[in-house]
Amino acid sequence: MNKVLSPTQRSALQRVIDDPELQPWLFKKVSDPVWFDAFRDHGLFSPELNPKPLKTKQNTLQVQSWPITNFLVASSLKIKEANDLEAAEKYLSLIRDVTQYAIDNDLSNHRTWWQFSKVLRNLPTNIILLDDMKYIDFWLTDKFDRHLVAKEISEWLSELADEKDDHSVKISLLLLDVLFTIRTIDSHYSGDRKEAVLYFDSYQANEFINKSAKKLGEQLGLPAIALLERKLVEVLDINGNDKWSNLWRKAIEKHKQNRGDDTEDIVLNLFRDIIFGYYQTNRTKDSEVRLVSLLNSDYETIKRIAIYIASQCFEHLKESTVKQVINRTHFNDKFRHELWHFLNKNFIQLTEADQKSVIEHISSLKVKSETDAIDLIPTAYKQANWYAAITDVDDIARHHYLECVGVIGVEPEHPDFSCYSSAGFIANESPLSVTELAVMLDNPVELVKFLNGYEHVGHFGEASIEGLVETFGALVSLDDCILLNNLDQFYDLKPHYLHEILSSYLNLWTMKKPRDWDSLWPNLIDFYERIFQSEVFWKASNDKKLESFIGDVHWVVSAYSRLIESGCEKNEYAFDLDLCVKVKGTLELILEREPGCDFDFDKNSSAVSITINSPRGRCLESYLKLALYQCRNVAKDSDEHVNIWTSYEPVFNNELNKPTIANEYEFITLVVMYIRNFLFLSKSWTYANLEEMFGEIGSKQWLCSIQGYSYVGWLIPEIHEIFKSKGYYLDLLDRPNLNDSVKDRYVEYICIAYLQGIEKFDDNDSLLTNLLSRGRDKELSKLIWFLWSIKDQDIKTTKKLVFLLWPKLVELIRVQASEQNPLASKLGLWAEYIEHLDDESKSWLLEIAPFINDDHNGVSFMEELARLSATDAFSVADIWKATLINPFYVYDLKPLDKIFKNLISQGKEGRIIASEIAGIYIVNSDEAVVRLYKSLILEDR
């Protein structure tokens, strides 16, 4: 290698000295280390020349590259090829000088540091001092960019892992230490808290871990494990989230449930893979001792990692280490995923004594209520999760597992996870994760302050108040119920969070999640009793609304009411009857404060829909369900029943007057809709107030109660008498602001009144006669359809009514002059009631046959004709011909096949008629029917 510049090279150097603008061109062109001394001697490596950030016209800072570093990178490759130690020392000295100058003068240029990191990779490791790591550390703290340097250093570290000399190992450990330096910054949700971050981004870090971590574990061994343990402890201490690791890190291994790439995840991944790399290649006494020390760590996260490693390396474990892993204290939700898989994978290889110990540990798991009694369902659920790990390999475990499943009623889903998230669990972006919120539970005042203070609405993909509320709901839903068990610390939450508590609890209840419900119900009921007693809560309804879809005061009322309704259901999850008095008082307090909704409905709106979706309506419905819950748990009409009713009666009496005194119609709608329930609570009160419930005909109250009664689906004779005597039936059928579904129900009630013997068809004021006189297709079509729909109930009076109505309806059909007659088609449904044709029934069918498919009833009509043709093929043929006056397509040829066969079987006359009918289909070009006929004739021959 030349030691001095040639004449041509010296000439070129002089030109760029004279004209500095040419220097970048020369620095990019040359790569021979011989230029180094010349550049140095002319002061071109002076630390002052390393560019400082420049302020642009846009008032931003721009970092420029130092052109001469291009030469340093290119020429360092030549030094590496030649193993030129002398030149390498000069380069290393330059790097030290320039970096030290920047340190002393607080200068920054990440582009220079990036180039220096490239040069450093090309220099012999043995000349690099341990103290030189401070320069790399400085590069990685550059305020403008550190990712380029981190990438180079991480790649260098991967290369160094192949060098096994002591100095390279020491350098590698120091690089690992510097590269994964833990920085502490102020938390983005509270200036009083800190957050751990790394120098480089998660993508680079994970790429490095995937590529090099196991290899580093093999080469660097126990020192690297100790280093990364310290790093992980540092991160856990800064973030304060060790006890929540089963939330932010569902599985120690790579798993789709692990959704984070935060600092703790990255350092955990590195620690895990370095340990695994080490244990794959080192089976020594020291390695076993180190694993045991990790199992005994004060940090739950590190214990989980140790259990995971023990599972992966089980065949090399000592019996004493196995006992450490299956220690009773590890049968805990915090360690469930790792220990579950340890057992699932290795239980069959355990000693008999250890297997017995595992069964005993699982069987000893208990969930107790506040009274220290064992809560059977949560206990069975907890045990079933653990038994599921070994149920396929152990008969005793299988037996216990099935017993537990019998208690809880279902097999546990995802038993290996203490907290499992389905896809899309949080629909909106949140400024905080569930784990970060869980960490803040250590200081509830701070958590409440943060939640109440966050109001950012955000756009798509941005953190928003909606996302924060949803994440808070996920916190409420945690298996350990830590928030629900400490509700007294959250009275000051804004309504949207109070609503989320209720919604999350209701969701847990609906899914029948095994929880200590006997303790949770009193907590929740006491908490919301105090909330609804607070004037601050009710004033929140006047606060400025956020431009977001989150709960307000009225949502809280609705959610509380829905939850109370659920708690009144007759099952093991219902709240204790002793809580009813407190709940009743809270609901009555709500009724005093929650106003009614606007009932200015039109034809397309529903009083029932408005009622059951309004906060006040939900509260009233809940109040009724609470009364029913109490009364159903005592003997009907007993003194206890009467006393319970008496306690509710004043509120119901007051609500009856609300349409007049407060323009509120929720109760009027509900009382009629739930009339049968009120009859159970008190017949005397209900019958005494029937007329008052409906009010004046045509009034808003009347319209609400009419709609409410349409949902009963049961004819109450006393109400029918009121309707008939006051002319309600015909009046409501003419009301334009009542929709067809309501009117249809009252047509059904009219029919039911006849079937129950309340109405007589021949009476002068018969409602059925009135319907016929009106002659309205909608009403008569509903009548026909309803009487057909109950044919399977085999009610004799139904058939009698059908045959009374049929000739009347036929008369109406005759007078209609239109080409189409859907009512006649609908009447074809009644053909099912005809067992055998006679002259009268044949005449009915002949009248409707030409119109039979106007309401798409043609195929079903032909099926009935096929049935009747078995005993009267000729009459059926006449009716069939009548249907062909207006031909229609029959997609199912089976009925036609049967009628043709029955006709042909009648001999010559039958075959002639069959031929005539086939001729009509020929004229109509219905080839499918013609082919059917021809095939049958051929068979008959």
Describe this entry's structure for a reader.
With 941 residues, the protein is mainly alpha-helical. It is elongated. The model has no long low-confidence stretch (mean pLDDT 91). Helix content is 62%, strand content 1%. It has a two-stranded antiparallel ribbon. Strands 3-4 form a two-stranded antiparallel sheet. The protein folds into five domains: 1-145, no CATH class; 148-350; 351-412, no CATH class; 426-541 and 549-576, no CATH class; 796-941. α2 (23-29) runs parallel beside α4 (68-82) and α27 (580-593) runs antiparallel to α29 (615-631). It is built from 49 helices and four strands.
Shape label:
elongated
What is the strand content?
under 5%
Q: Can you give the mean pLDDT?
A: 91
Number of helices, counting only DSSP H or I runs of 4 residues or more: 49
The portion of residues assigned to helices is 55-70%
Q: Which segments are poorly predicted (pLDDT under 50) over 5 or more consecutive residues?
A: none
- Alpha carbon gap, first and last residue: 112 Å
Radius of gyration: 42 Å
Structural classification = mainly alpha
Read across the widest sheet, the strand sequence of neighbours is 1-2
Number of domains: 5
Q: Please count the beta strands (DSSP E, at least 2 residues each).
A: 4
| Main sheet specs | 2 strands, antiparallel
List its traits.
single chain; 941 residues; mainly alpha; two-stranded antiparallel sheet; 49 helices; elongated
Describe the secondary structure blueprint for this structure.
Blueprint: H1 7-18, H2 23-29, H3 35-41, E1 54-55, E2 61-62, H4 68-82, H5 85-105, H6 110-122, H7 133-139, H8 147-160, H9 166-179, E3 183-186, E4 194-197, H10 202-239, H11 245-248, H12 263-281, H13 285-295, H14 300-312, H15 319-325, H16 336-346, H17 352-363, H18 376-387, H19 395-408, H20 434-440, H21 444-453, H22 465-476, H23 495-510, H24 517-533, H25 535-539, H26 553-567, H27 580-593, H28 607-613, H29 615-631, H30 639-656, H31 658-661, H32 666-673, H33 675-681, H34 683-688, H35 690-694, H36 700-709, H37 717-726, H38 728-733, H39 740-755, H40 767-774, H41 777-789, H42 796-814, H43 822-827, H44 839-848, H45 858-868, H46 873-883, H47 894-904, H48 908-923, H49 927-940
Antiparallel strand pairs: 1-2, 3-4
